[in-house]
Amino acid sequence: MLTISRSQLQTFDTQSRSRFVAELETYLAERNAQVLPRFPQAQRTRIVEIMIKRAQALGATWRSTIGLHADLMQSIAPNYHTQKDIAAALAADGELSVDQRLKTLVNKVPSAAWTEAEEMSSTLPMFHVPALDKRHLAERTAAALSVAVWEIPHEQIRSIAVSAVQAAKRFRFDGLADAPMVLTLWRALYGKDFNNPKVVPWAKTVLDERESPSVRLHLLRENISAEKGRWI
Questions:
Q1: What is the pTM (predicted TM-score) of this model?
Q2: Alpha-carbon dihedral sign for residues 35, 98, 133, 173
Q3: Would you state the pLDDT for residue 221?
Q4: Residue 204's pLDDT band (boundaries 50, 70, 90)?
Q5: Of 159, 156, 180, 185, which Cα lies nearest the Cα of 170?
Q6: Nearest Cα to 229, choosing from 44, 39, 28?
Q7: Which residues contact 85 (CB under 8 A, 6 or more apart)?
Q8: Alpha carbon of 143 to those of 49, 81, 209: distances in Å?
Q9: Contacts of 122 (CB under 8 A, 6+ apart)
Q10: Which positions ≥6 away from 201 have C-beta within 8 Å?
């Protein structure tokens, strides 16, 4: 009679999960060349692991719905499920499981809700586990920086995250959770003159407080993407 020890079962689970992560990573990269392919291998794998944890935190258990959730995170918004109509559809009472609700979500929720979800997008959840969602912004930023801004030495991440939160307030990006992370990447890629218009011509527009913080942050992301090929 074949017997399998607890340690063997754990090994099988680990191997199965590793295969799923690798398969999902390949699928997502093929679906959207603008997100995962822009990251080194280690960061890509970590992002996919975070996506899986976020799907499971919602209650998803099927591989297909975990994959669907991950695809919606990269194609609509990492926090798409917080949009009110989408959240209501996922939380609807009835006999349907979260997996079943996710399967029918795209067809049940009106297009205007998906548009709003894109407009209220926050990428920070893509880079840290859901267990940190209610923690202080500096702590969430620190966790995200280890994935999103891999140039930073590990021992400096915490202090840089704290400084980045302060910089976001100084540059009047108040209320935008992604701002400290994006500002950190800006500084890391462009050096000490990152906000000097003589060195970085578009910096003046990004820091022009006559425009809304959300528009300025969007412009910052667009410029970093166009010039450095980074997604954040």
A1: 0.91
A2: positive
A3: 97
A4: very high
A5: 180
A6: 39
A7: 109, 110, 113, 116
A8: 14, 21, 29
A9: 77, 78, 79, 177, 178
A10: none
In whole angstroms, give the CA distance from residue 48 to residue 222. Answer: 23
Rounded distance between C-alpha atoms, residue 206 and residue 198, angstroms = 14
- Three-state SS for the chain is CCCCCHHHHHHHHHHHHHHHHHHHHHHHHHHCCCCHHHCCHHHHHHHHHHHHHHHHHHCCCCHHHHHHHHHHHHHCCCCHHHCHHHHHHHHCCCCCCHHHHHHHHHHHCCHHHHHHHHHCCCCHHHCCCHHHCCCCHHHHHHHHHHHHCCCCCHHHHHHHHHHHHHHHHHCCCCCCCCHHHHHHHHHHHHHHHCCCCCCCCCHHHHCCCCCCHHHHHHHHHHHHHHHHCCCC
- Position of tokens 């979800």? 117
Residue 133 in tokens: 């969602």
Measured between its terminal Cα atoms, the distance across the chain in Å is 53
Residue 117, pLDDT > 90, answer yes
Structure tokens at 207: 């820091």
Which residue type, as a one-letter code, is found at position 190?
Answer: Y
